[in-house]
Amino acid sequence: MTIAALDVSQYRLPLDPPLTDATHGAMTIFELIVVDIRTEDGAMGSGYTYTAGRAGGAIRSLIEDDFKPLLIGADAGRIEALWQRLWHAVHYVGRGGPVSFAQAAVDVALWDLKARRAGLPLWRLLGGHDPEVACYAGGIDLQDPIEELLARTERRIEDGFRAIKMKVGRPNVHEDVERVGAMRNLLGDGFPLMVDANMGWRAGEAVQAARLLRPFDLVWLEEPVAPDDFPAHRRVRDVGIPIAAGENLHTLAEFQALLAAGGADFPEPDLATCGGITVWRKVAALAEAYGLPVTSHGVHDLHVHVLAAAANASYLEIHGFGLEQFIAHPLEMRDGKAVASDRPGHGVVFDRERLGAFAI
Ligand SMILES: [Mg+2]
Hints:
The chain is an alpha/beta fold. The chain is 38% helix and 21% strand. α1 packs across α2, α7 (203-213) packs parallel to α8 (230-237) and α9 (252-260) packs parallel to α10 (277-289). Magnesium ion (MG) is lined by residues 196, 198, 222-223, 247, 297.
């Protein structure tokens, strides 16, 4: 299983219309970085990560210039050893940030290769708990007028979604209350509804917002404050509203600190940005040890596998970046649940020709 070749590609995919949240404002570009690994005996694996439009070049360079020489000639089956090798090789500039994104793309490729070689779908290789995973439609819609927000939600319910997430963090919190109230009114009592503030508030503002939003019976309030202000997460949680957090944490140690502070009910690691499947599984096990579920952020075609393998799986986020137009077999949904595929590996096959138009 000696690694013979590694190729990395970078694409800048336009987002039309732009997506909006409280941190990024309007996002117009989705960057995709794809890694292909081949072993001497011809086995293949692919992995990928993404950005909200910037720093993709740094991630690509880390993989091409720093990781590739450490991987060529290595045993592809020793995924944990290779993860540690890469982590320590660049630790002085790493321990998170772009390094965690770069490691994630490599790690996913190695897991894909291992599963394809075994002839197993990833979710079975990783433990095989339940291929049907509860999911929600993650709206990126902070600036959308209420009428548009509600019309899109109606379409999503028609498409089969049984849970919805919307953005909050408007300049005046009472606008958020009005929008969430309109959404609850549309969905009716008991329909799972999450809201996501994308770190839009300081602690005091978040506490006030949580008090105002509590009557709407939310599944969770996501990222109310800066991602590494763990005591503030705890303050907001103490209002009596469940907290989801983690899409801006990029190491296992950060998740440990968040959970030790009592800062989250729904840890939300993104395997494409926290070091890969190897780290995501450790966060899931950590959450389980704290008696908590684990959820996901982004790359739903990959997360469906790790959630389908986890005993403490919570909701899968179905994100709105439109990647399905470049994928041969977009994620399947059945009765409001996402279904992990039975194709070997993660089963995500990109249309390289179509993507090629956006290569840089
Ligand atoms: Mg979020």
